[in-house]
Amino acid sequence: MKESIAIATLIGTIVGAGVLGIPYVIAKAGIVAGIIDLVGIGLLLLVLNLYVGEVALRTKGNHQLTGYAEKYVGKKGKVILMIAMMIEIYGALIAYTMGEGTSLASLFGGNPFLWSLAFFVIGSYLLHRGLKSVGKTELILVVVLTLAVIIVALMAIPFVKLQNLGAGSGNLFLPYGMILFAYLGLTSIPLLKEQLTKHKKSVKKAIIWGSAIPILIYVLFALMTVGVVGITGFNSLGADERIASSALNVFVNGPIGIIVNLFAIAAMGTSFLALGMAMKEMYKYDYKMSKKKAFLLTISVPLIVFLLDQVFDVTNFIQLLGITGAIAGGLVGGMVVIMFHRAKKLGKRKPEYQMKIHWVLSIILMTVFVAGIGYVIINLF
């Protein structure tokens, strides 16, 4: 049971709002370039997750990524990682709050803003309850979202048009930020280790399963959605309607729309809980804050920014995730590679598994992260 909950925590962190933005960016890039990105980035992040797992097992006590950065890179490393985690997690919590409101309103009717607030209140309550409540909720939601993807894929087959799976721009960097964001689950590895305190030999297996299953879910969901909607269909929608759940609601009649929205609600709910828990634990373990202060800092920032965005309409869902993924994901990923190499020399504990050092792989990882950050920054201006 503990291993299943640990796997569910990682899957739940990874498979969140990002999956809803993937089909649109893949349709723009073309299905071939998109699938190459999906599989390639997914495998690189699987390796990165295993790196974090080894770092965690080489270190005594519980920490979040910022704590490991301070131990193995120094105070500057801790500051860089803290900034990256804040961009990643707060950006994600804001996006999930937006997306939940849209999906709940599509399913039940009503005002998306009020649904967003209702979701935020429930999610905050579960975060306040702690890791045990979050882990059990994650397991239930992960089962729901996995079944939903399989059912939707099977039901959508008659609506797929092969011409929608044609070539796009072929630009591998175009979907990069969105896809990288969709695979970010690094912050849940310390939670996974904590859940498996008495079963540390299962950490590697849990990381591999928890990282591999999202790749399969994403490929299946992307092929199905792009096949149904296509780039022409996406371009006919408004910027806020290009998330997969809304697009499928428009182009497919019947129960598929309901199931897709259930999938979206489950996916964003799991990630909200796991990432919120990671942020709370960062403040608690690595900055020695009280539980109450850590909780309030975790929920107050995304709530304030979400309310401000409702007033000033600063960004849309997909744009926010793409920028957040490339910049925050690139910074976190680069720091993890450095921590992994340093922990090999400075770790105080013998880990239950060890990854070999492959310098070529490390260089590839660093190059991908730096290039991704550069591409997004250039395109912002």
Provide structural commentary.
- There is one protein chain.
- The chain is mostly helical.
- The protein has a single domain (2-380), classed as Amino acid/polyamine transporter I.
- Helices cover 78% and strands 0% of the residues.
- The protein contains 15 helices and no strands.
- The protein has helices at 2-14, 18-29, 31-57, 65-72, 75-108, 112-129, 131-156, 176-183, 189-195, 203-235, 244-251, 256-286, 291-312, 317-346, 359-380.
- Helix 1 runs antiparallel to helix 9 (189-195) and helix 3 (31-57) packs antiparallel against helix 10.
- The longest helix has 34 residues, at 75-108.
- The mean pLDDT is 87.
List keywords for this structure.
15 helices, mainly alpha, Amino acid/polyamine transporter I, single chain
Q: Can you give the mean pLDDT?
A: 87
The class by helix and strand makeup works out as: mainly alpha
**What number of structural domains do the residues give?**
1
Give the class-level CATH name.
Mainly Alpha
Largest sheet, if any? none
- Spans of at least 5 consecutive residues whose pLDDT stays below 50 are none
Give helix and strand order, one letter per element, not per position. HHHHHHHHHHHHHHH
Helix content: over 70%
> Gyration radius, to the nearest Å?
19 Å
Give me the CATH architecture, please.
Up-down Bundle
Tertiary shape: globular
Topology (elements, then pairings):
Elements: H1 2-14, H2 18-29, H3 31-57, H4 65-72, H5 75-108, H6 112-129, H7 131-156, H8 176-183, H9 189-195, H10 203-235, H11 244-251, H12 256-286, H13 291-312, H14 317-346, H15 359-380
Helix pairs in contact: 1-7, 1-9, 1-10, 1-12, 2-3, 2-8, 2-10, 3-8, 3-10, 3-14, 4-5, 4-14, 5-6, 5-12, 5-13, 5-14, 6-12, 6-13, 7-10, 7-12, 8-14, 10-11, 11-12, 12-13, 14-15
